[in-house]
Design a protein that fits this description.
Elements lengths: L4 H6 L5 E3 L8 H9 L4 E4 L5 H14 L4 E6 L5 H10 L4 E5 L7 H6 L3 E6 L2 H9 L5 E4 L5 E2 L5 H11 L4 E4 L5 H9 L4 E4 L1 H4 L8 H9 L5 E4 L7 E4 L2 H10 L5 H8 L2 H8 L22 H18 L6
Parallel strand pairs: 1-9, 2-3, 3-4, 4-5, 5-6, 6-8, 8-9
Antiparallel strand pairs: 7-11, 10-11
Helix pairs in contact: 2-3, 3-4, 6-7, 8-14
């Protein structure tokens, strides 16, 4: 049985977070992950505060265990969602794609544990100073909005820069990944791509099919020109978008091409116009399982890998 400090801090059984995937991670998925012993996280994505409040209540109908909310800080609704999180006294808030400094005091006053995603050492130091509970170090292997550094390079640097517990994200899909990031100093993992095919994940079946059929080089990063690099599956959409990025198309037109593309993938599975966000490990996701089975399986796999690590020591 693998346990770590983050389990005691949050009150969860296994040190596994489900990534806050925009338009995907709803109250139902989050509740299934929390019931399975991990931390289920509702993604606010580009939705408003009332959507998030509804999802929190849906999750709470399904589980009494701790849940989290992820706020994508580039969202125009970030401020109202930050308040919903405090009002609803959600146990954990995670943040992404920005700097959550201005909300930290409000969350701490409401007893909400703050676990920001950091993609740089500078942000890790700032969040430590401002009283975060833990940090998520997310490498660019992940799906969705990506930072520059890989998990292998970022994680030990974040661990050296903070006294807080660090959860690793980006490129983790099985027990080997869990064991590897524990060796680099993490005390927990966050996975997104693996949970895309959880039975409780309500994305369009075509999205799940694409993940299950993915191969090693099937993801690509687009969006660098506008400063929001996003990793997604190679599809007609990603090819069209890449082409447009290197054309004379205006930034506004480019923005319009991407807007709504993730929702299109999630809700209609449309590979012409949809952006199917996924991490580099998509090829290693080979079967649909319940969230609880996914968590148990990776934990069961990690244990012998960690035990065997000693065999390398004379
Ligand atoms: O946020 C994510 N992943 C996401 S958000 C998202 S929704 C979206 N839709 C369209 C365009 C863009 C996004 C899809 N995937 N991951 C967490 C993450 N946070 N990765 C990197 C960062 C990050 C980056 C910069 C965190 C902090 C940061 O600080 C910036 C600063 O102000 O210094």
């Amino acid at each position: 049985m693998i346990k770590s400090t983050i389990c005691d801090i949050i009150g969860i059984q296994y040190p596994v977070f489900q990534g806050g995937m925009a338009w995907i991670a709803d109250g139902k998925l989050a509740a299934a992950v929390s019931e399975g012993g991990g931390l289920g996280i509702i993604a606010a994505g580009g939705a408003d505060g009332e959507y998030v409040r509804r999802q929190i209540r849906i999750a709470r109908e399904l589980t009494q265990k701790p849940i989290g909310v992820n706020i994508m800080l580039m969202s125009p609704y970030a401020e109202e969602i930050a308040q919903v999180v405090a009002q609803e006294r959600v146990q954990v808030v995670t943040t992404g794609a920005g700097n959550p400094s201005k909300y930290m005091q409000m969350w701490k006053d409401a007893d909400v544990k703050v676990i920001p995603v950091v993609a740089s050492v500078g942000m890790a130091k700032l969040m430590t100073k401002l009283g975060a509970t833990a940090l998520i170090a997310e490498g660019g292997e992940s799906g969705g909005h990506v930072g520059e550094l890989t998990t292998m390079a970022l994680l030990p640097q974040i661990c050296d820069a903070t006294t807080l517990p660090v959860i690793a994200a980006g490129g983790i899909v099985d027990g080997r990944g869990v064991a590897a990031v524990f060796m680099l100093g993490a005390c927990g993992v966050q996975m997104g791509t693996r949970f895309l095919v959880a039975q409780e994940c309500g994305i369009h079946p075509e999205y799940k099919k694409k993940i299950l059929k993915a191969s090693d080089r099937c993801t690509v990063v687009t969006g660098k020109r506008l400063g929001h690099p996003v990793r997604s599956l190679r599809t007609q959409f990603s090819r069209d978008y890449s082409k447009a990025e290197y054309s004379t198309m205006s930034d506004e037109e480019l923005e319009a091409l991407a807007s709504g593309a993730l929702q299109m993938a999630v809700q209609s599975g449309d590979s012409e116009k949809g952006c199917f966000m996924a991490g580099q490990v998509a090829a290693m996701v080979t079967k649909e399982q319940t969230a609880a089975e996914i968590i148990r399986e990776i934990m069961d796999e990690a244990e012998p890998v960690l035990r065997n690590a000693l065999s390398f020591v004379e």
